[in-house]
Amino acid sequence: MKKWSLLLLTLVLTVVVAACGNNNTNNQAAGNEGASQGSAGNAANEQPAETNSLESVKASGKLRIGTEGTYAPFTFHDKDGKLTGFDVEIAEEVAKRLGVEPEFIETPWDGIFAGLDAKRFDAVFNEVTIRDDRKEKYDFSDPYIVSRAVLIVPEDNKDIKVFADLKGKKAGQSLTSNLTDIAKENGAEIVATEGFNQAIDLLLSKRIDATVNDGLSFLDLKKQRPDVKLKVVDEMPDAAESAALFNKGNEELVQAVNEALTAMKSDGAYLKISEKYFGADVSK
């Protein structure tokens, strides 16, 4: 009897131990599965949600704008040192309609594209001419100003009458400007300048022979300094359209800027700014 009792007790204990072992194994497996799901959930939570450029601008509360600050009447400093100008006021109005504040980052023209490449700005408002080669790398807003290139020389200059006369002459130009291309195509020797104002200073001091520049800038110069001893001797027949510049991949931001520009033209805000600087509608 003792043998049978011991044998029965051994069998019962074996079954109980086995059952406990299986239960622990199942609990451990379930625990590991739960941990894996938790890790996966945490990993998913850690991935940042993608935001487009318009959302980023609105989240930051500001539109970062690249501009020269030395190119009157488009972007310059007034007598009190305040940044102002046609492009500046257009950009300010656009930012207002996007519901954000404009933050202007002043940059020399020859570094403004590199600044956009480095994402220092969200956009450039600086009389940037729409060109096919630029469209390959950047996106433009709808054009907001139309102008023509003119050839400017000292009043007493009798040698340069048309663009073709630039051959062998010194022309003061910003190196990456489309205006420089016109000077080069006509054989000019290019003297690098940081913008319109410096080109005018070099011209007045006779360190250069001419500059190919924006006709609207020259009109503003004559308005501000009617006695300046300079004249326009030739003008390109084709008008150039300028617009805000963006890195590619910012479709939502470009569309929002276009909508703002359209609204400005519809409600008279654009015309008010245009007439302030030019006395006319310069959008066409």
In short:
With 284 residues, the protein is an alpha/beta fold.
Sequence-ordered SSE layout with sheet pairings:
Layout: H1 2-46, H2 53-60, E1 62-67, E2 76-77, E3 83-84, H3 86-98, E4 101-106, H4 109-117, E5 123-129, H5 132-135, E6 138-140, E7 145-147, E8 149-154, E9 170-173, H6 178-185, E10 189-192, H7 196-204, E11 211-214, H8 215-224, E12 230-235, E13 240-247, H9 251-267, H10 269-278
Parallel strand pairs: 1-4, 1-5, 9-10
Antiparallel strand pairs: 2-3, 5-13, 6-13, 7-13, 8-11, 8-12
Structure class = alpha/beta
What is the string of SSEs from the N terminus onward? HHEEEHEHEHEEEEHEHEHEEHH
Secondary structure: helix percent? 40-55%
Mean pLDDT: 86
- State the low-pLDDT regions, or none: 1-49
How would a crystallographer describe the biggest sheet? Answer: 6 strands, mixed
Span between termini: 115 Å
Q: Roughly what fraction of the amino acids lie in strands? A: 15-25%
Query: What's the total number of strands?
Result: 13
Radius of gyration: 34 Å
Tally of DSSP helical segments: 10
Question: What overall form do the CA principal axes indicate?
Answer: globular
Question: Tags for this entry?
Answer:
disordered N terminus, 284 residues, single chain, 10 helices, six-stranded mixed sheet
Explain what this protein looks like in three dimensions:
Its main location: other. It is found in: Cell envelope. The longest helix is centred in the first third of the chain and has 45 residues. Helix 2 crosses helix 9, helix 3 crosses helix 9 and helix 3 runs antiparallel to helix 10. The protein is built from ten helices and 13 strands. 47% of the residues lie in helices and 21% in strands. The N terminus is likely disordered. The chain is globular, with a radius of gyration of 34 Å. It has 284 residues and is of the alpha/beta class. Strand 2 and strand 3 form a beta hairpin. The strands form four sheets. Strands 1, 4, 5, 6, 7 and 13 form a six-stranded mixed beta sheet that branches. The protein has a three-stranded antiparallel beta sheet with strand order 11-8-12.
